[in-house]
Design goal:
- By secondary structure, this protein is an all-alpha fold.
- It has 15 helices and no strands.
- The chain has helices at 2-11, 15-41, 44-52, 56-80, 86-99, 106-120, 125-157, 162-182, 185-200, 208-223, 225-252, 259-272, 284-295, 300-316, 318-341.
- Helix 5 (86-99) crosses helix 15 and helix 7 crosses helix 8 (162-182).
- The radius of gyration is 22 Å and the shape is globular.
């Protein structure tokens, strides 16, 4: 009991740390809005007349691409999870995705809600925990992979700037390390086992079996070739299709530039959003995406209206859809609960 209390105190952060982190986040957010977002929004007045001449076919194309991106994320979930209907997985993912955009501490709240929905749909708790962990690691890695692959044509088609060369070399070293690690399964497994045992010794005794089972499940998932294939296909398509929505709006507003700078701007904005300064990276993603597109020569009014249209479809449109998915899951859950009694 004393060991559990001591380890709990060590893991809990002091109040001054939380207050400092909140203050730093607010300062960074205000600085971003003041020096990055607001100057770009001033261009939006010049962009409004482009909305009147927007072809509806471009909007339909963007909606289809965004829907396909969300479906790919759920296909990634289905590859890691068995015993649950795909429609249930899709609605659970959409619910968590929408909740993470509107609730304070959105990522943690959405993960807890998604965990409850998936377990109520028939998934085992240890499987869901392992899946959430795998996706939390695999999805950013897929984004990094997209960014690294994009640097290859960027180096060929554009001047080899130091930033491109640095990103390419870092990605090349990481890829080579992964290939070498994959050839030494036994040594990696022994190292993983030692790390797991060392971690378990510092955890409360009542949760050690649960953590060990989740770690074993996660190891089995990563060792599965089909799971690795799903990561390379569905997690990557999830990002690429969402980036295609941004390119679609750029083309719709009159500036169909090469996909390479669009992917680089998209990856830079979403990688910056990994730091949880704002819910869903709001204001951070917009400011970095617009600034990066301006650096590639996109006219200011086109960059602003295209990024705002993309974020409207990608960030805000799933919110009401998430509410509908949650209500449908609750209603279906009540019907399933009453069916045995009837």
């Amino acid at each position: 009991m004393r060991t559990a209390t001591r380890s709990g105190r060590a893991r809990s952060r002091p109040a001054w740390y939380r207050r400092l982190w909140t203050a730093v986040s607010l300062v960074v957010l205000v600085a971003l809005v003041e020096y990055v977002v607001l100057p770009k929004l001033a261009m939006a007045r010049e962009s409004l007349d482009r909305l009147a001449h927007l072809n509806p076919i471009w909007v339909v194309t963007a909606v289809v691409l965004e829907a396909a991106s969300l479906v790919c994320y759920s296909l990634f979930s289905r590859a890691l999870l068995s015993g649950v209907r795909f429609s249930w997985i899709l609605r659970s993912d959409l619910t968590g995705y929408g909740v993470s955009h509107v609730v304070p501490g959105g990522a943690a709240t959405a993960t807890a809600l998604r965990f409850r929905l998936l377990t109520s749909g028939g998934a085992r708790p240890t499987d869901v925990t392992a899946i959430v962990t795998a996706q939390a690691i695999g999805s950013p890695l897929a984004l990094l992979l997209v960014a690294w692959v994009t640097t290859i044509p960027a180096l060929i088609l554009r001047d080899a700037t130091p930033a491109y060369l640095a990103l390419f070399l870092v990605g090349l070293v990481a890829l080579a390390s992964g290939v070498l690690a994959d050839r030494e399964h036994s040594r990696i497994e022994r190292l993983s086992a030692r790390l797991l045992r060392g971690t378990l010794r510092h955890l409360p005794a009542r949760i050690r079996p649960w953590v060990a089972s989740v770690a074993r499940r996660l190891r089995d998932l990563v060792a599965d070739r089909e799971v690795r294939k799903a990561f390379l296909v569905w997690a990557t398509l999830n990002w690429v299709l969402d980036a295609a929505v941004l390119w679609t709006f750029l083309a719709a507003y009159g500036d169909p530039i090469s996909p390479v700078p669009v992917l680089l701007a998209y990856c830079a904005a979403n990688l910056a959003a990994v730091v949880p300064l704002t819910p869903g990276g709001i204001a951070v993603v917009e400011g970095i995406a617009i600034s990066t597109l301006l650096g590639y020569g996109v006219p200011g009014e086109v960059a602003v209206i295209a990024v705002l249209s993309w974020r409207l479809l990608q960030f805000w449109a799933p919110v009401p859809l998430a509410g509908l998915c949650y209500l449908s899951l609750r209603a279906e859950g009540h019907l399933l609960a009453r069916r045995p009694a009837a």
